[in-house]
Amino acid sequence: MRSPILQSATKYLLPILLLFSFFLLLRGHYYPGGGFVGGLVAAIAFVLHSFANGTEATMKILRRKPLSLIPIGLGISATSLAAPMLFGLPPMTGLWFEQPIPVIGMIGSSLFFDLGVYLVVIGVILTILFTISLNNITEKD
Amino acid sequence: MELLLIVLLGLLYAAGVYMILRRSMVKLLLGIMLLGSGTNILIFLLGGITKGKPPVIDENAKLFQDVFADPIPQSLILTAIVISFGLTAFAIVLLKRVYALVNSDDLDDLNTPEEEDI
Amino acid sequence: MLLAVLSGLIISLLIIPFGKLLKTKWSILLTLLPALLFLYFISYIPAISAGSSFLQHTNWVTSLGVDFDFRLDGLSLLFALLITGIGTAIFFYARTYLKGHVFFDRFFGYLCLFMSAMLGVVLSDNILLLFIFWELTSISSFFLIGFNNDNAESRKSALTALSITGLGGFFLLAGLVLLGNITGTYTISELITSRESILNHNLYPLILGFLFLGAFTKSAQFPFHFWLPGAMKAPTPVSAYLHSATMVKAGIYLLARFSPILGGTDYWNYTLMAVGGFTMLFASVHSLFRIDLKGILAYSTISALGILTFLIGLGTREAIIAASVFILVHALYKATLFLVTGIIDHETGTRDITVLGGLRKVLLPVSIAGVLAALSSAGLPLTYGFIGKDLIYEATLHTNYQTLGWILTAVAIATNIGLVAAGFMAGIKPFMGSLPKQFETVHLPYKSMWIPPLILAILGLVFGLFPGPAGDFINHATANAIYGSETDMHLKIWHGFNIVLILSLATLLAGTLVYFINKPSALKLHAIEKLNSIAPQRVFTRFANDIMRFSRWYTDLFHNGYLRSYHLKIILFAEALLAYKLWLSGPFAFNFDTVTMPSFYEIGVILILIGALYLVVTTPSRLTSVVSMSVVGYCTCLIFVFYSAPDLAMTQFTIDTLSTVLFVLVLYKLPSFINMTSKTVLYRDGIIALSFGGIISLIALRVWSEPISKDIANFYGENAYILAKGKNVVNVILVDFRGIDTMFETVVLSIAALGVYSLIRLRLKSTEKE
Question: How far is A82 from chain C (nearest CA, A)?
Answer without folding.
Answer: 11
